[in-house]
Fold these 2 entries.
Entry 1:
Amino acid sequence: MPKNSLIDFDSTKPNSPFYNESHRQWRDSLRRWLAKEIAPYVEEWEEAEEFPLSLYKKASEFGLSRLNYPEQYGGLDSGFDRFHAIVTAEETSQIGAGGIFASLLVHGIGLPPIIALGTQEMKERIAPAVLTGDKRICLGITEPDAGSDVANIKTRAERDGDDFIVRGSKMFITGGMRADYMTTAVRTGGPGMSGISLLLIELDRPGVARTKLKKQGWWASDTAAVYLDEVRVPVSNLIGPENQGFLGIVLNFNGERLAMAASAVGYARTCLVEAARYAQERQTFGKRLADHQVIRHKIAEMQRQVNATQAYLEICAWRVQEGESPIADLALLKVQATLTMEFCAREAMQVFGGAGYLRGNKVERIYREVRVNAIGGGSEEIMRDLAARQMGL
Amino acid sequence: MKILVTVKRVPDPESSIKVNPEGTGIVESGLKWVVNPFDEIAIEEALRIKEAQGDVEVVVVSVGVSESQEQLRTGLAMGADRAILVKADRPDTAAVAKILVKLVEKEQPTLVILGKQAIDDDSNEVGQMLAHLLGWPQATFISKLTFAGDKASVECIREVDGGMETIAFALPAIITADLRLNEPRYASLPGIMKARKKPMEEIDAASLGVDLTPRVRIKKMAPPPARTAGRKVESVDELINALQTEAKVM
């Protein structure tokens, strides 16, 4: 009878020239922090559909939520590179509960436009409070009738003296229930892309209402519909020039796609590892699951797809680090990564059988989180279309 | 003030340890190596003293293979100021203590903090030997350390079999850290980045003029016997009998 062997995240991951000692140490430190501060509570927070607000503070103290922001606002950016970001995505994905990190690190999409385009007063007012974990900021682009077609957003901001009066609604807003601020795309001008501005809205202003949205996965994440009913916001809250909001919106894209791809590969590898482990434990027909050829091949096939995607991810990350902006490849990488995640989540569920259908295990949770990765941050269909356009088709 | 803290490279306690077929040691290939957990507590204590008192230099020291650099870097990433690696091939505890004496003579620290023991061989000897060789006061297994107002002496609470023992003594001194002394911090990413630029000195143990001849010889290493299946008993009487006569625990 073949012996069981230890197949884990590290043993399945191929060696790669992009990582040095600082990446290995960061992985080690982060892994230990996650094991202590998050892993023991995952089931509880998922079922409660919420994690304690104190986690924002803890993540800031440890540094996780301050990574890659300027030090003058309390961030930590010296020496940080794309591979530290990949390590971060891989380690957090091994927890197998994406909703926690979607809300915990939602300032990753809400804050960069302010840091890049906001006024000095705004940066100093918002960034330090968010980076210490005292305040939260989300991003409000998508609407009931507009998503990746940002040019069609309907939420209007009308000038009234030194204020805007904002009317409209925002949909699928990650972290929206508990956020203090929303970086919001609003229409300040005519139709199309050139009429859109980014506006910082404090969510305690009169006229803001929110509804919590129930979801297939990401239960611990507070996702909201945000209604803006004649919300008065000072003109000085404009992030960047009026009617040039698209600048700030696209600013997020490359980093977000790379990070989502890295997480998706991490989830896929977690499914592979969980399946390999279970296949070595579970006995059927007098032998281990792993001794049945149909099961062995599933696991080898998962490994093939995960490691191929990993190689694509690391090359894309290296190109971005070298200053390139490989838009088509980043879009296709996201597609490749979420398809791999989908495949591995499916196959791992098949290996687990009935046990995988029960709540309270990583594979079952990741299975329910496939779609949010495959659709959120640009669906596979939108990504392919973007790539085709970039290729000049 | 200067504090010397020892750091030993040990196998990750969560990895699966196998004895090699010759019975001469453990299989080291594929093992993950970490800082001895008690040494992490020692580093943390030194860093807290530094944070409380300001003018303190924390020097981490390891005696062992070149790869121990990785563990020293972790100490530097946590916040230590510099590192010293004394290269020596599997020194026994007496040799380590004698090497540390040389470093203490060179560095002149006010305090040496060690983990109470390393989790690989659990010897629990180096701190005590070092105190003896230097003729310094020592407090082992401490769970609390308090400086006197003039910073010339300390008060320590030790965990002993009967409870807690409080002792006070003048510096310089040796202390060894127990589990409850503190909860070590995690190395932060900026700490990790800064650690790359901090100085690390390498010394060849042979150059220190210390007798490194081992006093301890490992004759044989064997894994503990595999657990055998339990047995069902028919009655409480039979259970009590088995516990008394077979297991001999009652």
Entry 2:
Amino acid sequence: MRVINFIIENILTQASVTIALIAMLGLILQKKSAGQVISGSLKTMLGFMVLVAGSSIIVGSLTYFGKIFAEGFHMQGIVPSIEAINGQAMNELGLGRDIALTFLAIFVFNIIIARFTKWKYIFLTGQAILWMATMTTVFGYFAGLRGITLILVGGFIGAVFAVAMPAIAQPFVRKITGSDDIALGHFCTVGYVFEAGVAKVFGEKGDKKKSVEDLKLPAQLEFLQDTYLSVMVIMVPLYIITAAFAGADFASTLSGDTHYLMFAFLQAIQFVVGVYVLLAGVRLLLGEIVPAFRGIAMRLVPNAKPALDCPVLFPFSPNAVIVGFITTTIGCVIAMFVLPVFGLAMILPGMLTAFFAGGTAGIFGNLVGGRRGAVIGGIAHGFFITLLPALLVTTFNSMGFVNTTATDVDTVTAALLYAWLIGPLLKAF
Amino acid sequence: MFGFGKKKTKKPKQEFIEPEVAVITEENKDEVLRTISMREKELNQADREGKAKIYEDIGMTYLKIKEDDQAIDALEKSIQYKKTLGDGYKTLLRLYNKKRAEAAKMNDDKSLQIYMEKMDQMMQISKDVTRGVR
């Protein structure tokens, strides 16, 4: 009995062990060899530890940034990063085990919904499911849910999103791809549909509708070639300018013997290093789990439509991707200055979200409202995807998250569902 | 009044019709194969970009005579020579998905994983080409 208690209290409570056991389950169900099961489980555990290390680096950098931003601009400056939210929730908040089990629950509920309803979508973007599991777990926990209830409610809500979002996007995806056999699995769909709605109202109509695909635009976005370089391009000036505004007197108290501007530069690089390490951890973590479970899902629902990551749409409307990226960035910058006027925190623009979510949203805007729809819709989309995460800042702050908020708007919507509906309902009864 | 109680006539739901691939009959299948072998001869003189284009054409021609495996082989070669997001890319993604669905129906996990991985690679190619990575 003492041995069992020891295992339950000291081993199974460790998030890294839980995650490794989930991977082990997937590998065993796939009838892998003993060697593959052991190496896959250990790699998954290693992935979790790397993720945690990345999170610590990000938190260190963001703590510094929060201090200089508050001193320099007398308000809170928030860096939108779902990776940072995930890392902090897994590590600093100690919700790693619950997030891992919710992640598994989303997979299981997704299979059940696809198997027994007419919505045959299997969500295959593993990273996005991890972000969704993070948000449902964090906000479920904040709403007062614990243990198995937290996991099952989070798993069910996450799975409903995993099926509903591709289903909502599918009428658009059919028109974009000219085919009904592939779906879109990216948790920014609320934003895409929002852009389509704006494009419908303000865009070109009927014969006047002209596609951006008829325009000649630069074909490549060289500065975005490397994920980490594109993060660096934003973070370095942001940190240095903020440090300059904070002033030498204040910033030097944080920088020790190093010049305060040089220290700001190094801290910006530290942030990028943190994202690099964290994402390397995520890749290791999901490398074994995702193939195992999506294989199982596809075999259990053989007539399923695979919901793939957003680049699935890029080839069908490449110009709209560029227009969407530029207009979404403009919308994000407008929102950055406008939201503080209404008492909300200043959300700094995130280049990667603007590219992937903005680019895909551009395709929707162009489809529905042509050139004008893509431009007006894109700017509105940028504003929208900055506004929604801004609404979560107070809650994130009260939970102990450091100067960051979520990005992918479907995960933010799920969080708002908890904050505005499930939480109050639980408190009422 | 206000149309209450009136039976709403439900619009029939429009079914989505998959785009038809032009079907080539057995008689001119030989002719198509001859065209393919002529195109293959052009490969020797072509540069990388030219080879990518020729393989793309060959792949699309194989698709017309429903030789999916040959089409996949040619389209994969085309993308190896040059990453593009044209018709060849879109067709290859569709063929991978078709193969994946067949593997799922046959409960063939090995093939299923192979085609899922290939679809993952297609997503990476789409990202790379859009961002200008060569």
